[in-house]
Sequence to fold (382 residues):
Amino acid sequence: MKNTLSHIIYDKTSQLPNTWNDLGQKNIFLSKEYLEVLEKSAPTNMTCHFIGLFQDNILVGIAVSQFLDLNKLESFGDRDQCIKAHVRKFILKSFSSHVLLIGNNMLTGQNSFILSDSITASQGIQAFKKAADELKIKFKSIGKKVHITTFKDFFKKDLENFNTIAFKNNYKYCIQPNMVFEIQKNWKSEQDYINALSKKYRDQYKRARKKAEGIEKRKLHLDEIIRYEDVIYDLYFHVAKNAPFNTFFLTKNHFRVFKETLHDKFLFYGYFLDDKLIGFNTLIKNGSVMDTYFLGYDDSIQREKMLYLNMLYDMIAYSINKGFKEIIFSRTALEIKSSVGAKPIEMFGFMEHSNSQINKHVPKIFPKLEPEIVWQERNPFK
Fold:
């Protein structure tokens, strides 16, 4: 079938066609409501666009793009102070500071696009590639030359869709896996999960719960999220700044805007000790899937009370009780997520540098830039 697809790039959600959510409802992260959250509270170094694909004036595909200006970052993450980390920062600032993504750098998983059944994935991806090329021209016109263009977070089964001439100069990369927790059909309560654990990991569960005695967990509503906004941001920023690598930092109003816009689909839990907020985590309901989002904590209390591990157990308990099928735990902290039962799923992406000489060397350079993660996969179940 001849590919007669056209595209329109939108700067604002108010411009989106009325039929956008016919496709957007399949994934909350491409719904008009979520895109409004990005529009109102994206990181300051991020510019978002929304792409519609049309066939005979009918919307057949939607996507999100993000332009990242890494020059605006004060820190790429302060945890690693090794030479490799300094080299990575130098290379990113010097040669790769302007990154254009088809996809969402704030999430893990295929949240890049949705297509209708009337076109193939290969057709859609090639059309989005043309939109990305147009976006590069758009940014160049305002003095921002795109250095790297990337399509991110695809499953192994999706890779054949990129086997086209449009991606012949792209480097296929595979970075840290997405940690996914599958909820067994026969689990109806947290106790069913505990019963499925082997003795070693049941003991880990009991030890963590005992350590957390005295901590009160509360679901926070919008007025409380606003009231605690400064503390929330400090807790988030502490965790984010100590990550091995960052390409953005959230704005202070991000969680408030999320709650205002997505209401009950966005859950915010605060953890209190002696009436003081010492940690929080966030969840997003995405159909039958629960996505974990950003969290924060006071590090000194986190260690003593095993707060992070308790948060993972709380997320699992809630998701089982509410009948979700799986939990997306995303990247980072791979081993501890593995210890509660999450499994690593390989995710792939494609990237191309605008400088053809540099692009030739990307297969050698890129693996050296990735923070090295050494971890051991666990199986906590009987």
